[in-house]
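User: Structure please.
Assistant: Input sequence and predicted structure:
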Amino acid sequence: MFNIVLYAPEIPANTGNIGRTCVLTGSRLHLVEPIGFSLDSRMLLRAGLGYWPNLDVQTYASWEDFLARNGLALPANADRLHLLTKKARRTYVEATYRDGDYLVFGSESTGIPEALLASLPARCERIPMLPDAASLRNRDAWAAHERALGDAAASSAGRGHNGAGTKADAAGEGARTSPPASAPEGAASPLAAQDICGNFVDPDGWRISALNLSNSVAIVLYEALRQTGFCGMGADAGGRGRA
């Protein structure tokens, strides 16, 4: 049996889908507070279909509570944890999974807290994916938005009390329809801020786009199940076990 740990989940439908996957694979679900919804949420139960009543699920007041109640003293038991994050060097397929391991996933918006990742760097794993095109597009949108705000301020300052426009108005209008200019090389631009994986991030919310949480859980869980021979998954085409 594997353990799926959701640290501060925010979207009930994701947790409902993950709960359904846990029931169908004989896995246990652990929810670490803060949880962004009620466990009686209609969206949660709808996504979990009729499986939710059969789910083995536990809730915890904090990460420390989770560790204590599961007998996971650190660093002695660190090898039972797999921290899934975009900020890891090792991919999830490079990891070795054992029955009873804990697969830990962070919240949809911010992931696993940086302090936790920093405390267990050897246990961090990632799902490989193509460069985050959505974040690149968002970077341009943020730049255009900031530029438009600056143009609007300049335009307002250049107007007289009679409402007549100035050359600044025309310049500002043209700037709003032009592509955002790139920052000079080496310049520190908050609009082009990147996290340690190179993903462009919102300088205000620090949100980055990624795989859907329920998809991520299924991808990693089934690799763990494959390695441990779930329903014959450990056998190759020739019928031999995985080396």
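The beta strands are 3-7, 28-32, 57-60, 81-84, 102-105, 124-125.
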